[in-house]
Amino acid sequence: MSLLSERQLAQYRDEGYFVTAPAFEPGELAEMIAEFDRLHAQCVRDADATGEEKRIRFARLRPFIGQAHLKSEAISRFTRAPIYLEICRNFIGPDADLYYNQVVIKPPEGGLAFGWHQDSGYGITEPLEYVTCWTAIGPAFKENGCVWVIPGSHKRGLLEHVRGPESLDAVVDDERGAIPVELEPGQIAVFSSLTLHRSGPNVSKTVRRGFVPQYHVPMVRDKATGQPHGDLFPVLRGGKPVGEAVAAGRA
Ligand SMILES: O=C(O)CCC(=O)C(=O)O
């Protein structure tokens, strides 16, 4: 039985996003929280050691920690959870790689906002479109800086992005219809890399923890250089989890 409904598949096509039911056990989320706290503490220590003001500010107020699958075995395992593989089968195909992944934390009472953008605006790949899985490791709501999306904006194509003071921002001329995507722990906002999204500041007393794996075709290439690009971490081959496919190959 599929973990996704026809309604969710149709919403992705029509609106460029949908939200899953809670897809992880409390114990899995607790393990992720412990890993987030460990990686965040390391990120602050690393930033402090550089003495760079901007890096220190981001480490404290909007730590986005990339390539987390290489820094934590638990996170590496998490990126191959059944729900993500089902999302890959539906929106990428029977073969898929982890393209990028980030631990994204907004500390309480000060976590920074992030401007409107399309994930494809951060790096043009061939093929262009891929899937982002913004996963709530704890509650994500308006006051703690949840993600907002503009439903249907994936149909606008790739927009121009310009460097703002704190992020690379899309040039957006119409924000009408933007909605907050509030999530319970374990829910995933699944969206196209062309869907416009942003996130607000954290003005609450609750930390906002998100894990953001993104999936793409195997060995995806950077359009400008033609070189393989991103995490290039295989998760699905022939519709099967990679571990299983390898085991079957060896038998
Ligand atoms: O989690 C956030 O605040 C924004 C993350 C995001 O939009 C991204 O990584 O593309």
Describe the protein in words.
- Helices cover 27% and strands 26% of the residues.
- By secondary structure, it is α+β, with helices and mostly antiparallel strands.
- The chain has a single domain, classed as q2cbj1_9rhob like domain (Jelly Rolls, Sandwich).
- The strands form four sheets. Strands 1, 2, 3, 6, 11, 13, 15 and 16 form an eight-stranded antiparallel β-sheet that branches. Strands 4-12-7-10 form a four-stranded antiparallel β-sheet, with no helix packed on it. Strands 5-14 form a two-stranded antiparallel ribbon.
- The chain is globular and about 45 Å long.
- The protein starts with 5 loop residues before the first helix and ends with a helix.
- Bound molecules: 2-oxoglutaric acid.
- Supply the helix-strand structural class: alpha+beta
What small molecules does this complex bind?
A: 2-oxoglutaric acid
The tally of structural domains comes to: 1
End-to-end separation: 26 Å
What's the CATH class label? Mainly Beta
Write down how many β-strands occur, each being a DSSP E stretch of 2 or more residues.
16
| Cα Rg | 18 Å
The helix/strand series, from N terminus to C terminus, equals HEHHEHHEEEEEEEEEEEEEEH
**How would a textbook summarize the main sheet?**
8 strands, antiparallel
Helix tally equals 6
- Assign the CATH architecture: Sandwich
- Portion of residues in beta strands equals 25-35%
- Output mean pLDDT: 95
CATH topology: Jelly Rolls
Q: Rough shape?
A: globular
- CATH homology group: q2cbj1_9rhob like domain
Proportion in helices = 25-40%
Instruction: Give the low-pLDDT segments.
Output: none
